[in-house]
Amino acid sequence: MIRVPEVRLLGDENEQLGVVTTERAREMARESGMDLVEISPMAVPPVCRIMDYGKFKYEQKKRTSESKKKQHVIQVKELRLRPRTGDHDIDVRLKQAREFLAAGDKVSVTAVFRGREVTHPELGMDMLQKFAEDLKDVARVERTGGLEGKRITMILIPVRRNG
Q1: Alpha helix positions (H), 47-161
Q2: Is residue 26, in this structure, part of any structural domain at all?
Q3: Are 84 and 62 within one domain?
Q4: CA Rg, the chain, in Å?
């Protein structure tokens, strides 16, 4: 509800209609079958516009949903390995990591130790280093963690290509 005696009025095509009384502005909006919307309440006098408010809200909602479609939410995909994982299984994990990185996601590679394997954390670190080395053309290491409990985690992020 606009409670000031006069407003600066804009038409539905953004043309200046000058400073008019609030009653006259409401009347003009009613005649054109549209709404009187206050755009800038802090201006002196406040700026109002004659517009179809329902259509405006609909188009605004459409624009925001369109911009959301173009966004890519970066996810962190996790791959787990063990120190005694076979070469072929590591190759499969490398292929999966390449796919995740190509899609723009981060990859968390975790070396998990069971039982007495935890006494040789260097085996897990070597495996993670080799993993990062094999993916250096598509990823770079964001963070390498030390031994936390029975696991070592390394996070890889995709390399930005210029082109």
Answers
A1: 53-69, 87-102, 121-134
A2: yes
A3: no
A4: 30
Q: Say whether both 60 and 104 belong to one domain.
A: no
The 16-21 sheet, strands edge to edge: 16-21, 6-10, 47-51, 35-40
β pairing state of 151-158 and 139-148? antiparallel
Q: How far apart are the first and last CA of the chain?
A: 53
| 1 within a domain of the structure (yes/no) | no
Q: Which pLDDT tens digit goes with each residue over 98-132?
A: 999 998 899 999 999 998 888 888 888 999 999 99
Which pair of tokens denotes residue 141?
Answer: 């290491």
Q: How many domains does the chain have?
A: 2
Q: Do 108 and 140 share a structural domain?
A: yes
Task: Quote the domain boundaries for residue 82.
Answer: 76-158
Q: CA-CA-CA-CA torsion for 28, 31, 32, 38, nearest 10 degrees? A: 40
This prediction has a pTM of: 0.57
- Pair of tokens at residue 42: 């802090």
